[in-house]
User: What shape does this take?
Amino acid sequence: MNIKELIDIKEENIEDIEEEILSLLLIDHTTNKNIIWGTDTYKKWGKGFAKKDNISLRNITGEYKNIIKPRIKKNKEEQIKRSRDKAEVFTPSWMCNKQNNLIDDAWFGQTDVFNKENAHTWTTINKKIEFPSGKTWQDYVELLRLEISCGEAPYLTSRYDTITGTIININDRIGLLDRKFRIINENVEEYGEWIKWAKLAMKSVYGFDWQGDNILIARQNLLYTFIDNYLYKFSQKPDFQLIKEIASIISWNIWQMDGINFIIPYSCKNENNNELNHSSKTQAIECPGCKKNNYHLHNGIYSKIMNWKTNRPNKFINIVTKKGRLS
Assistant: This one.
């Protein structure tokens, strides 16, 4: 197999993933269950497909194997509905590149580090990346990056063009994780060292979303980004155990969350007041956080992510409110 064939990888489908790996990509580590659908888009398929239902392997394999599609393959009516109901935003790849470039311009102290923008496209800078005084390629790989309301994670990885759906050559990708892998590929030759830094890169990028299908697609995109780069570097696929380890990292770093309230969607509940009122009826009490619009007071389940420095999970709200740190 030549290098061009390795680079021009066709888009893989969810059903092509081994069930053991797919099970890892469905995990919600906060609830120790699977992620939920988080949308009524799939309720027409019957029991188990409502917005509060957990996504099971049965829901997305066999006769249901093609029901989850990237946004580019969803029909226009569904795209509009998701934008209206959940503020799902469609960001073209060229815009993701422009905004990612602004981040790198500030860090490197110069422009046109990875590519040069050309209206609604870009031209890759092919020379080896040089680092400013006092900063190293290792520093860049370990930078923590978060894509909020990540959808399919186009800011983290750009495996395919979000407008056309076509695969982007690995050297021309513009995601934050893609850039980290370019740096690793340019600076590391020894296998064990490459694996070490590839894992650190995977641990350094985070993203959350409300809708479960987006979570699954984003996780899939990050997993295949690792596999793509392994193929590019070593001209063979990684072994099953290594893929499992990477999938486990991703299942922590791309998580399901109501981004306004920092909880698992729909997890707040009305509680019954055990004290009898004058009519001798039990009175329902609304979730304090929802009632007072205070994200500290929810009785729902606060989402957790992994602190890879300590290998301990932490509630994301603690990080936002500076009660916890990732580094």
Q: What stands out?
A: The chain is about 35% helix and 10% strand.
